[in-house]
């Protein structure tokens, strides 16, 4: 794989890489040229040149079972207390931006800088600290595709430039279209970008992994006023759009307790019954996503409104009966 002059696979210019190596040496022991090269995404030969450059800058580096710093007194400690350090470390390690390719290296460099600049008191406390909190953000991101396209889309958003997409839509299959990207968002386990689609003549939500190819055009566009993540997704259950519809569901059994104890939508209302059931009411844009959610509760959820959703669920129920109660495992 070839990289632009002065850059690595993580997008590090040489100056950034030298700082990154310096921070690695302050936080980790017995680092060989091979290990440093792997962290930086360059060859060992490049690391040897980098170490020489640091030495020529009067930074005291020596080798004994790995590269080490003779002193780190020339770099001041960051003024983080232990709780601030823990919070920042959790945020950096759990960020979905690791999957984008572009920001994986950036997050690693930030982490190295944070670790290298901790006060001695925080370092001592960290040695015996228990990792009490863990954050596991589920993602379904295809990293190779994200690494290929994320940076291009972000640049188009920043520079207000149009994109030509080869896009594999779930509904319409592969199409070629020109879009005006407004923002990127991580939502529902994946990265999406919202753009005005010139093919469909409206704002659309595009999933990053469904992009097959992309070209950054020279043509600029003027973004639509008032299009923000909050305004665009207002009223959606997850990602979907459409006309607002009021959905009323009666939950029973354990499902009533589960739904009653957690907020699922900012505009929801819940009414508990004397027999332990729960009437859940919410107005959302489009029915498909909330309908899939209802199906997950089985016979402990009964849709009261709207009739269209009741009819859809009845049709799905008949399919289940025909498929699983016909005595024919293969269906009809």
TrEMBL record:
Residues 243-318 form the WCX domain. It comes from the Bacteria. InterPro entries: CBASS_pafABC_assoc_protein, HTH_11, PafC-like, WCX_dom, WH-like_DNA-bd_sf, WH_DNA-bd_sf, WYL_dom. Coiled coil: none annotated. Residues 17-66 form the Helix-turn-helix type domain. Residues 151-215 form the WYL domain. This is Transcriptional regulator.
């Amino acid at each position: 794989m070839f990289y632009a002059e002065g850059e690595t696979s993580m997008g590090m210019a040489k100056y950034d890489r030298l700082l990154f190596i310096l921070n690695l040496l302050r936080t980790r022991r017995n680092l060989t040229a091979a290990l440093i090269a792997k962290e930086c995404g360059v060859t060992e030969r490049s690391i040897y040149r980098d170490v020489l450059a640091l030495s020529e800058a009067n930074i005291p580096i020596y080798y004994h079972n790995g590269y080490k710093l003779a002193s780190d007194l020339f770099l001041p400690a960051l003024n983080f207390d232990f709780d601030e350090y823990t919070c920042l470390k959790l945020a950096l390690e759990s960020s979905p931006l690791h999957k984008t390719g572009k920001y994986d290296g950036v997050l690693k460099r930030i982490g190295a800088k944070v670790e290298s600049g901790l006060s001695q008191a925080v370092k001592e406390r960290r040695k015996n600290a228990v990792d009490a909190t863990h954050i596991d953000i589920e993602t379904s991101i295809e990293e190779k595709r994200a690494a290929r396209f994320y940076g291009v889309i972000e640049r188009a958003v920043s520079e207000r430039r149009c994109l030509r997409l080869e896009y594999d839509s779930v509904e319409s299959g592969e199409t070629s279209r020109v879009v005006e990207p407004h923002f990127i968002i991580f939502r529902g386990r994946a990265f999406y970008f919202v753009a005005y689609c010139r093919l469909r003549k409206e704002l659309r939500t595009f999933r990053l992994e469904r992009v097959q190819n992309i070209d950054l055009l020279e043509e600029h566009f003027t973004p639509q006023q008032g299009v923000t993540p909050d305004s665009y997704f207002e009223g959606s259950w997850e990602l979907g759009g459409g006309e607002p519809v009021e959905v009323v569901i009666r939950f029973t059994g354990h499902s009533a307790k589960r739904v009653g104890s957690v907020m699922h939508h900012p505009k929801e209302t819940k009414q508990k019954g004397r027999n332990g059931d729960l009437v859940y009411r919410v107005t959302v844009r489009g029915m498909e996503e909330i309908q899939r959610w209802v199906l997950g509760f089985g016979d402990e959820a009964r849709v009261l409104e709207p009739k269209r959703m009741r009819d859809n669920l009845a049709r799905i129920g008949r399919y289940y009966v025909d498929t699983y109660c016909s005595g024919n495992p293969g269906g009809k």
